[in-house]
Each structure stands twice: as C-alpha cells, then as structure tokens.
Amino acid sequence: MPLLRTAMYAKGVEIYCAPTADARDIWQASMTHIALEGGCFVLSANQFCRRKDYPPPPEYVFAGTDDDLNPDSVICAGGSVIISPSGNVLAGPNYDGEALISADLDLGEIARAKFDFDVVGHYSRPEVLSLTVRDHPSNPVTFTSTSGKPEGPHK
Question: Among residues 14, 51, 133, 147, which one has the fewest Cβ atoms lying within 10 Å of its Cβ?
Fold first, then answer.
C-alpha cells in the first residue's frame, strides 16, 4: 500500500477515499498518517451494522465470538471520519449509529500542507530512490523454473 499511495500522491490525489470495515480506534491514526503523508484530505467511510443486518443463525454465524448476540448487538461500530491534509479531524469519527458526516474542504490547505512535507516533491530523493509504475496489464505473479525460463499461466 505505501507504493500505491506514493503513485497516487505523484498523480496529485487531493481526496483519498478509504472505505473500511475496521472499527478500531487505531484506524483513525492510519487515516491521519495518510492525510499528513499525502498532503490530502482523507475520507474514511466505515459501515455500521447490527446482528439483525445479517442472515439469522445457523445460516450466518460470526466466528470467533462467544458473545450471545441479540438482534441489536453492534457488529461493526462505524467510525467514519474526514481528516484534513494537516491532520485535523473535520468530521467524525462517528460511532453512534448510521449517519452521514460531511465537512467543508478548503482545497488551499493542500498546498499549505505540502510546504511542510511533500513526499513526492521537495522531500523526495529521486537520485537515491524511485518508483516505476507500469500502467499496462500484466500478470501479478510470474513463476520461473529452475531452467530460468519464465513459465506462463497453467491451465
């Protein structure tokens, strides 16, 4: 993911959308990091759901929980958040139920944040490190035999 983010930053992403199913508090730290690293706004949308939003047992059973889940038990507590390029929380996180969060975005804050830290600009060291992104279709995995001859996909 860091390499993917670097490629997105190089293309000038201004709003980074991060859908998730991670309702842990620590997720917000990751979103703040991305906002600061990329000098971009981060919109992290998380689901809020209760047991009754899923098929009933035994059709659907939650593995790894010994809790006696009733229909109103919270399965995923949400935590959607909007973070500015300077790391300030503009809206959320919301753990209170289904909700729509919103914020006014000052796009000028992107340029101001990059004066402090521009990961693909004045802080980059292209004479030492570089990233090459192939933007054409290719196989995600290629196997090489002991003969050194690349093997194609097996059918």
Answer: 147
